Every structure is written in structure tokens, then in C-alpha cells.
Protein 1
Amino acid sequence: MTLRGNHPARIDDKGRIKIPNGFRLLVQSQYGPDLFVTSVTGEYVRLYPMAVWLEIERKLAQVPSTNPSKQRFLDRVSFFGQEVSMDK
């Protein structure tokens, strides 16, 4: 199974995202339970395994801090983002 495509997820009564089971099992087996959850617009959620997010941060660190696209992206993902661990 791959992580391609659009797969609607539910938000439960406690405000938690219910990740489709096949995705959850694949992500946990390949990356572990830690995720970075964020959004760029506030309308859609983006989930990154922490190892993937850390690689994105590493690549962004190579882009000059004066780059307006970099700053805009970081401002948005920082505003909406947080580190989480998947539970069952």
C-alpha cells in the first residue's frame, strides 16, 4: 500500500483525527508513531511522519532565510503545526 491519493478522514468527538487503518499501520511500521500535524491553509490537514518532517526541515535550512516563499511556508506550518503520537 502507498500513501498516495485523497483519503477522507474523520474527526472524533475529542477532536482527534482518525487515520485510515491501512495508512496508520503502514506509517507506524515504517516510521513509528510520531507525526507532525499541520496545515498550510487551515482547511486541510497534512500529516508527516516525524522522520519525513525532519528531512523537510533539513532541506528548508539550506534555503536562504530571506526567501519569501520559505518564510511564508514556515509561518503557516508553524502556526497550525504540532508534534503528536498516534494512539490506537
Protein 2
Amino acid sequence: MNIEWTSDLAIGVTEIDEQHKEIFRRFDRLLSACNEAKGNEEVLKLLLFLEDYVKEHFSAEEKLQKGSNYPDYPAHKAQHVAFMADVHKLANSFRDEGATLPLVIQTNRTLADWLIRHIKKVDTAFARYL
């Protein structure tokens, strides 16, 4: 699976777009490592990064939403909470089982698919509201 930032993912809010780009850069590192058979080394780095950075990113998005009285804030926040639960589940799997090939593949698919879908639908809807 290939995941890269493209202009159609820009929502027009500079702070949020830059944060999204950083998340994509981290995924790219994992995918590059997988192509070099070094995915086991990068999967934990990505999961640890996501556990911290995504909290900051989601907080920034949610602050903008609350500040603008965004009517879909509760549903948007619920998606953030669900994503963080997925990240924690994957991180716990890594801690319990190590970086198995299925875990690396699942991490790529689960998180990359969610990220693209979330930006294109949910974040873009918020950007239109702004």
C-alpha cells in the first residue's frame, strides 16, 4: 500500500495541513522500511509517534471546532477517540507480540486507510464549515 500526501488532501487550514503532512511523512518512513525488510524496526517508532503527536493534532483540530461552534464536533471527536483506541491496540499488540509481519501490515492498512478517509471526508467537511 502506498500512502503519500497529495494536494487533494489539503483542507485549507495551514496548521492542520502541516500536521497531516507530518503524519504522512512518518507513514512513508514505515513503508520505506517495509520495502527494505526493516518494517519491524519502524512500526514501533510510528506507533509511539502517533500516540503522542496525534493527541496534539486532534487537540488542535478540536480546539478549532469548539471555537467555531462546529455542529459535528461530537461525531468528529468520537472518530478521534476511536482512532486513538486503534493506535493503542496496535501498540499493545507490538508490546505483547513484537513487530510481526501481520502487525506491520495491519498497522499500514488500518491507520493509513483511516487517515486518508478521515481527511477526505470528515476534516474536509469541517474545513468547508470554517
Protein 3
Amino acid sequence: NFNVKIGFSEPRSGGKANAMIAGVLEYGKHGQPPRPFMKPAMSSSKADAIRAMEDAYDREVDNL
């Protein structure tokens, strides 16, 4: 059994929310070009994540 937290650790020093800063970095804003980090990470790990879920599913079904 795993407990996985997905998100941004808060609070951030300086008062701005990590999620807001991440959104600006990912998509940019007026005068600031995007610097994506979430989409490339998701794209590069998608096949491995699917494979891990399939393996976990198969193990659970085999143990029924």
C-alpha cells in the first residue's frame, strides 16, 4: 500500500503559491515565454507508468 502525494509543497517563502508559479512557468505569460516542465515529464514517463500499472494489475489478478 502506497501513500503518494501529487502537487506542490506549500507554503513558499515570498508569499506566492507554488502552483501559480508552476502555471506561469509551464504556460508563460505576457512578456514571459513558456518553459514547460510538466508536459515533457509526463510525455517521457507515460509508457513506463502504463507498464507499471499493468504489471501491478496483473500481480493483483494473479493473487485472486
